[in-house]
Write a structure and sequence with these properties.
The structure is a single chain. The chain is α/β, with parallel strands linked by helices. The chain folds into two domains: 162 residues, P-loop containing nucleotide triphosphate hydrolases (Rossmann fold); 83 residues, Orthogonal Bundle (Conserved Hypothetical Protein Ylqf, Chain: A, domain 2), CATH 1.10.1580. Strands 1, 2, 3, 4, 5, 6, 7 and 8 form an eight-stranded mixed sheet that branches. Helix 2 links the parallel strand 1 and strand 2. Helix 7 packs across helix 9, helix 7 crosses helix 10 and helix 9 packs across helix 10. Bound molecules: guanosine-5'-triphosphate and magnesium ion.
Length: 263
């Protein structure tokens, strides 16, 4: 990834954090530790803003497990809650957490997180029927029309632009952190790592998601390609690149059963 892109990402994040009182760090409840960013958390602390860790997609994880994760974060001194944005579960809990963390009222909230963690879904879930009303940021001159505030509650304003954490790390780390297949030079090695990781935690995952009984990652990719009729035109070999992209996308969409347990 070009250095300039990473720099721009972090400076955008800093700007968004600076303009808010409370920052939501949205993590994937299936793998909270793999989708949090210490660098983001340090930046929020440095800038003296309040952090709330939001474990989203909790519908994909047993409740007892997600509650264990929340306890782990709270034991370490963080504010943490869990929700399932697309199901509109936990929005009331989130509003309450925001009010409790608010240093002053009205309070401005920013939503940050790695790609695909559900930032937009959270903004939409919170906007709900109040979505039409927007208002300018109080006392913030020079603020352009590019970023607006939504009033999501009497005393809660939310930045409409989510802060996307730049994706860094190895191939599999990038996938876990929401990098799309197009952002990977070759989707096959990270997809194979992802399949291995999923199988370690849920041995029947690919049977459940695709009806495939294979347990060898490359075989799983080949079988997906064959089932869907994806072949190289020249060699008639299964087009595993396309299958790898499918597995990565389906993982992001939560179509493959998987979650990590604490410890
Ligand atoms: N099962 C489940 N899926 C969710 C939930 N929230 C979001 N998703 C899905 O996760 C994917 C990403 O959601 P978005 O809200 O677009 O995530 P985002 O963080 O805004 O993504 P980017 O804008 O790409 O950074 C979509 O396929 C959503 O439907 C949730 O609570 N449960
Ligand atoms: Mg989004």
């Amino acid at each position: 990834m070009p250095y300039r892109f990473i720099l721009a990402g972090w400076s955008d994040l800093r700007r968004i954090i600076t303009r808010s009182d409370i920052v939501l760090e949205v993590v994937d409840a299936r793998n909270p530790m793999g989708t949090r960013s210490r660098r983001l958390e340090r930046m929020i602390e440095e800038l003296g803003r309040e952090l709330i860790i939001v474990l989203n997609k909790s519908d994909l994880v047993p409740r007892s497990i997600v509650e264990e994760w929340v306890d782990i974060f709270r034991d370490r001194g963080y504010r943490a809650i869990y929700i399932a944005a697309t199901k509109h579960w936990g929005t009331r809990v989130l509003r309450r957490a925001i009010r409790e963390a608010a240093p002053t009222l009205p309070v401005i909230v920013a939503v940050t997180g790695y790609p695909k963690t559900g930032k937009s879904s959270i903004i939409n879930a919170l906007k709900g029927r109040h979505s039409a009303s927007t208002s300018p940021i109080p006392g913030s001159p020079g603020y352009t029309h590019h970023v607006q505030l939504y009033r999501i509650d009497k005393n809660i304003l939310m930045l409409d632009t989510p802060g996307v954490i730049p994706v860094e790390g190895s191939g599999i780390e990038k996938v876990i952190r929401g990098a799309s297949p197009e952002q990977l030079s070759d989707p096959v090695p990270p997809a194979i790592e992802l399949i291995k990781l999923i199988l370690r935690h849920v041995p029947t995952a690919f049977r459940q998601a695709y009806g495939i009984r294979e347990t060898e990652p490359l075989k799983i990719l080949e079988t997906i390609a064959v089932k869907r009729g994806w072949y190289y035109r020249t060699t008639r070999e299964p087009l595993i690149e396309e299958a790898a992209r499918t597995v990565i996308r389906d993982y992001h969409k939560g179509k493959i059963p998987f979650y990590i347990k604490p410890f």
